[in-house]
Amino acid sequence: MASDDARLSDWAKNISPSPTLAVDSKAKALKAEGKDVCGFGAGEPDFDTPNFIKQACEEALRAGQTKYCPAPGLLALRKALVEKYERDNAMSGIDFSQVVVSPGGKYSCYLAILATCGPGDEVIIPAPYWVSYPEMVKLAGATPKTIFAGDDQGFKMTPDQLRNAITPATKLVILNSPSNPTGAIYTPSEIEALVEVVIEKDILLMSDEIYEYLLYDGAKHLSPASISKEAADRTITVAGFSKTFSMTGWRLGTLVAPPAIAKAVASIQSQTSSNATTFAQFGALAALENPDAAKAAIDSMLAVFDKRRIKLLDGLNAIDGITCQRAQGAFYLFPNIKGLGMDSTSFASKLLEEKLVAVVPGIGFGADDYMRLSYATSDEVIDKGLERLTDFCANLG
Ligand SMILES: *Cc1c(COP(=O)(O)O)cnc(C)c1O
User: Alphabetically, which GO biological process terms does the record hold (predicted)?
Assistant: First the structure.
């Protein structure tokens, strides 16, 4: 009889599990043993979903919205998303048929890649990157090509780097602004310069805008698809409700794409998952139909995040051997730990074992000189975690 391993497909043999979830589960296991863990690993807001969103979902559930709905999403939600993209993102001329609601933004990303990339195609991914992009590209049978953009360039790929990485096999480039893991934001003019290259070379762009509303220091978000018709014709915009409204467990992602791509995405989804949970979509609809309540919820979350961001940033920069950029988006900081003379995996595991502080090693994001800390955690955890981290680093040498 063949061994279990031998029965796996080449796809399965090649895929690695998400390292961010791995750290989180190790920290949770220690916590469950009663250990006092300071967790900076979380990839989700630590707030509850706003009440008005939960209520709309509850009402839908009670009203019997418990059946399948159209695979690409509730018609009302797709139409509300068109309005949102026109109102908040300055996109124009979108038809609701170009909008697909999926079970999570992660799945929206995967569908966008599957619908456009296959064997022989190359996908350009700026590093530090979100852990799942290269794996999704490999699952589609295509080849990830990473470009490194370190803290010396604000973690941002330059137009020249992009142009030089493009080959005749390049199909797609992935942008994620604000970024997970770095929190970096491309300014509107930086986005415009990259989009110019995309148009000039006639490749596709997947713009992952899941953190579009989580901005600090007055930073501005620009959706590439809003720049021009040429830009919109080449851009797949992915976003969702998880990060904006603390709805990670609801599993609701969104995608806007040129008509043929949106249609292919909807077809793949109809054959693989069908619709995102029907009654959950009514909660998302409430979020879009009540922009004032939505804005109040986002603003109160942002005010808290912003204070923690500065506290953590200052604390990290006060530690010898650590330097940290002032990230202006999402809820992550991505300090450079090269000065400590350890690779990120050894650093993170030693830190967790000795000081019960959970961070995510940078290597999973393609950047071994760094670690990711999420400040979607309490002030107490940040204070205590910084104390322990300072202590740990002081005793390293
Ligand atoms: C969280 C996240 C997503 C999607 O999250 P879902 O929970 O699947 O909606 C997509 N891209 C990035 C970069 C993320 O951090």
Answer: amino acid metabolic process
Residue nearest to atom 9 of ligand 1 (CA): 105
Q: Are 280 and 308 contained in the same domain?
A: no
Angle between helices 51-62 and 278-289 (to 10 degrees): 140
Residues 94-121, mean pLDDT to the nearest whole number: 98
How large is the average pLDDT for residues 133-155? 97
Domain harbouring 312, CATH code: 3.90.1150.10
| 3 state SS of 254 | strand
β-sheet with 170-176: strand ranges across: 99-102, 253-256, 235-240, 204-208, 170-176, 122-127, 143-148
Closest CA to 150 of 169, 166, 129: 129
On the question of pLDDT at 224 being above 70, the answer is yes
| DSSP-based three-state secondary structure for 223 | coil
Q: What is the pLDDT of residue 20?
A: 65
pLDDT surpassing 80 at residue 18: no
| Residue 13 confidence class, pLDDT cut points 50, 70, 90 | confident
Distance 27 CA to ligand 1 centre (A): 21
Domain contains 29: yes
User: Is the beta carbon of 254 within 6 A of some atom in ligand 1?
Assistant: no
Lowest-pLDDT range of 4-18, 23-37, 309-323, 332-346: 4-18
- Which residue from 102, 108, 130 has its CB within 8 A of the most atoms of ligand 1, so it is best to mutate? 130
Apex 205 CA angle, 201 and 168, nearest 5: 35
Task: Look up the pTM and report it.
Answer: 0.96
Percentage of the chain surpassing pLDDT 70?
98
Is there a domain that residue 57 lies in? no
Strand partners, 123: 144, 172
Say if ligand 1 is within 6 A of residue 372 CB. no
The answer to whether residue 148 scores a pLDDT higher than 70 is yes
Best of 243, 251, 254 for a ligand 1 pocket test (most atoms within 8 Å of beta carbon):
243
Q: How many domains does the chain have?
A: 2
For residue 54, tell me if it sits in a domain.
no
